Amino acid sequence: DGAAYMTLSDPPANTYTPEMMRQLDEAILAARFDPEVHVIVLTGEGEKFFCAGANIQMLSESDPTFKYFFCLHANETLNRLEHTPKLVIAALNGHTVGGGLEIAMAADLRIAKKDSGKVGLPEINLGVLPGTGGTQRLARMVGKSKSIELMVTGGLISFEEAKDLGCVNQIFEGDDFMDQIHAYARQFCTPDKASKAVGRIKRSVQSGAEVPFESGLATERELQQQLFQSADAKEGLNAYV
Predict the structure, then answer these.
(1) Mind giving me the DSSP string for 47-98?
(2) Is 61 a catalytic residue?
(3) Per residue in 208-227, pLDDT tens?
(4) Are 173 and 215 in contact (CB under 8 A)?
(5) Cys staple from 168: which of 108, 116, 148, 163, with CB 3.0 to 4.6 Å?
(6) pLDDT in tens, 65-97
(7) What are residue 103's phi and psi, to 5 degrees?
(8) Which residue is catalytic, options 123, 210, 214, 222?
């Protein structure tokens, strides 16, 4: 139905390794260039965890150079996810902590299952910082002071608290969580919405928010011109008239 599903799978906590990040990167590219895909949904295997971050045992056994390049490649993958011109929904079906929250923050929208888990960046308890975009994305979401407090205390908060802070968009109740997610994702697909316009809105915000205002306006104009030339815009404008 126009939605591509990507599931982080490494039970019990769906922790990620370089191999999983490589697979995720390939899946993102495949979805980006697939004309049948209008929305990407990212979730975790099972019912307890969306993702608990990087595999700690793997990190503890590796040298500093490996750790550095691992973080670098993970950052590149999440940047690709964030700037893919298709809407990305993170379906938080369980605990979303550490690198798992960093993945979720690279999505455009975060929908959580009620009473299924908590979120947080507890890397301070390991003597490190959230090194896959966490310090930057969280600060942009909740502000500098609150993001520093959350990271230096390393505490976990409920989905309801995360929603109040702006980290979570909506919380769905009930046992049919993924069915609700699918219905939610479908509204951004053809024919309910002009999916190309949805993607360009996402692209304009994600890119424009990180550059000076005038540069952001230039990006907006360029993307608008692409839409003016599209069949969706011609149909939409004519239908309105």
Answers:
(1) SSEEE--B-HHHHHTS-HHHHHHHHHHHHHHHHHHHHSSSEEEEEE-SEEET
(2) no
(3) 888 899 999 999 999 999 99
(4) no
(5) 163
(6) 998 999 999 999 999 999 999 999 999 999 999
(7) -65, -45
(8) 123
